[in-house]
Design a protein that fits this description.
With about 110 residues, this protein is mainly β. The protein contains two helices and nine strands; from the N terminus they run H-E-E-E-H-E-E-E-E-E-E. It has helices at about 10, 60; strands spanning about 15-25, 35-40, 45-50, 65-70, 75, 80, 85, 90, 95-100. The strands form three sheets. Strands 3-2-1-4-7 form a five-stranded antiparallel sheet, with no helix packed on it. Strands 5-6 form a two-stranded antiparallel sheet. Strands 8-9 form a two-stranded antiparallel ribbon. It starts with 7 loop residues before the first helix and ends in a 14-residue tail after the last strand.
Length: about 110
Amino acid sequence: MELAQITYEDFAKVEMRVGRIIAVEPFPRARKPAWRLTIDFGEFGTRRSSAQITNYTEPQLLQRLVVAVANFPPRNIAGFHSQVLVLGAADTEGNIKLLSPDAGVTPGALIH
């Protein structure tokens, strides 16, 4: 499979930042099972996200560092204002495994 190529300028437009999940709520109105997350991005403030990562429990998510795309336009998902896209990769069973930085990275840090 050939991958579509982008320029560095295209990549540079994507603002990925480290955030800390500070609140996790069920999202029963979502079409597919999901959580409503509130994420602290340090000096950039808090943002909310709808995330289909129900293979994680609330205690596993709370206070976890994640990587998110912070400059997508907000989306209305079943009446919920989702502002960032939390990033993950699917394992062999299709479960999403969250991307997260090593210890010592602070919320708001830019991914290079």
